[in-house]
Amino acid sequence: MSHRTVRDAAAGITVLAVANFVAITTEVLPVGLLPQLAAGLGVPESTAGLLVSVYAFVVAACAVPLTLATRRLPRKPLLLATVVVYAVANVVAALAPSFGVVVAARTLGGVGHAVFFSVSIAYAARLVSPLYTGRSVTLVTAGGTAGFVLGVPLSTSLGAAVGWRWSFAVLAAVCALTAVLLGRVLPPVDAAPAAASTEQRGGRGRLALVVGTNTLLFVGQYTVYTYVSLLMLATGLAAASVGPALLVFGALGIVGLWAAGRYLDRRPRTLTLVTIAVMVAALAGVALALPQRATVLVGLAVWLAAFGAVPAAFQTLALRARGASEDLAGAFVNGTSNLGIGLGAALGSVLVAGPGLPALAWAGAGAMAVGGGIVLVARRAFPHDPTAAPRNDPEP
User: Fold this and answer.
1) Cβ(162)–Cβ(35) under 8 Å?
2) DSSP state of 174
3) Where are the chain's structural domains?
4) Global model pTM greater than 0.70
5) Which SUPFAM superfamilies does this chain map to (predicted)?
6) What is the DSSP string of 97-137?
7) d(CA 377, CA 249)
8) Band of the pLDDT at 386, cuts 50, 70, 90?
9) What would the CATH number be for the domain defined by 10-377?
């Protein structure tokens, strides 16, 4: 399939985007339901937020080992199995009698997630020729953005209307339908080569810089995003308005995704630097403006619009670093993203319980600013020209 264009692979890319939708929605579902989860399970909101951390740490710990363990398995059945795991995990969460059982359900979902993104990123790359990698990954990532745009806000509104358990139950049904769709539409692809090439060994330094920066950006993002509903409530926004606000904010993520699709195959370095700068400035503005409603909401909107470019950008940068096979590069992006999510959610829990919400926004901006500094220095890991063959001498 190496000769195929994005148009040639449209059916496969579309169904992978749908699978990314259910994956991201499953991962971040508790974000918009924190108040209902906490009340329903009898735990503080800061403790309920750890449901995001538990999931993320499982993914971070398992992504690379499970990807290596499954590298010789057929890709399509493996991808199908991960989506079935999502469905089962959401059913268990919907029926859970206690917080501990919800934690167990999230752990199960994390195991499936550890394999899913490692496989799906590489799948997207293998459906098209290398020239179209950025566009293919961006389009598949659009499904994840739709998880923010539609999945989380709609499930938040559903949870507010009829209870958080229904949000998990409906998502379980969507996961099951997605598995059927994958089975019918997705074309098979070959598994990754078992041995690392000389080029891959030479690119490990570049890959390490890309995934390290990715970790910092996700730490900053989820320090704040895990508790974004609390930030909105602190401005005096009504609880019933949180879901619709998240819908609007998520939709703005399409702006970042559009930028990724337009510039990722042409000017990846500029795209990455501008994206990080906008996110840092927006979160700093939120920290300074709290609790002024209009200014805070605008800052949150700008921040989330910019973040829409991050997943596609770093997945593509990791593939182009040529430091590992496509599956393993995907595993490193998946693992470090979730390490960042887990650390960010845990840090946010401490800040919410202690210094408060302005510190939350400052911490997120600080982590992202450090990531931006790495991008500035590491020119070969974050190149201007995505078509140039990477050099294998040390960074920077």
Assistant:
1) no
2) H
3) 10-377
4) yes
5) MFS general substrate transporter (SSF103473)
6) SSHHHHHHHHHHHHHHHHHHHHHHHHHHHHTS-GGGHHHHH
7) 31
8) low
9) 1.20.1250.20
